[in-house]
TrEMBL record:
It is a single-pass membrane protein. The lineage of its organism: Bacteria, Pseudomonadati, Pseudomonadota, Gammaproteobacteria, Oceanospirillales. The chain crosses the membrane at residues 22-44. This is Flagellar protein FliL. Belongs to the FliL family.
Length: 176
């Protein structure tokens, strides 16, 4: 009888050990399958082809650019002039600048009006970071014009998802 009891105990221990081994094996298989699935996903979707979302965004950008080149030009004059001071060789110098933005998309012109405080802030920071001597050259003014255009379009892209300004026009540029 004692032998029968020992057989039952060893049989129960064998069943418990078998269940533990089975659980461990199942967890290991699931971890391996998950890792393999993640590796396959990264391998298949990290190629040179843009994902479908990126392709859709590029298509919208292409359509927005097509719209921007068609139709009459719309101008938005920034009412208040920008005034920036510089310290050059111990003397106080000033730049007064009036700007007009050019676009062919009325929606983006309206977006500029909505986000004008953010745009003006960005432009004041841009203008005040310039070198007074460089702004006296034509190349410096062209570079400033391009930087201002990029600044405005970056803000519009952040806020509306699309840039829309084609050009920045300096309608008044006084340095003293």
């Amino acid at each position: 009888m004692a032998d029968e009891e020992n057989l039952d105990v060893s049989a129960e221990d064998g069943k418990k050990g078998g269940k533990k081994k089975l659980i461990i094996i199942l967890v290991a298989v699931l971890v391996l399958l998950g890792g393999g699935g993640a590796a396959a996903y990264l391998f298949l979707f990290s190629g040179d082809e843009p994902p479908a979302e990126d392709a859709a965004v590029e298509e919208v950008d292409a359509q927005a650019q097509a719209i921007q080149t068609e139709g009459p030009a719309i101008y938005l004059e920034l009412d208040q002039p920008f005034v920036v001071d510089f310290m050059v060789a111990g003397r106080q110098r000033y730049l007064q600048l009036n700007m007009t933005l050019k676009s062919r998309d009325q929606v983006q012109i309206d977006a500029v009006k909505v986000h004008m405080p953010l745009i003006r802030n960005s432009l004041v920071l841009l203008f005040s970071s310039q070198s007074f001597d460089e702004l006296q050259t034509v190349e410096g003014k062209k570079a400033l014009k391009q930087a201002a255009l990029e600044s405005v379009n970056n803000i519009l892209t952040q806020e509306t998802g699309a840039g829309g300004m084609q050009d920045v026009l300096f309608t008044n540029f006084v340095m003293q």
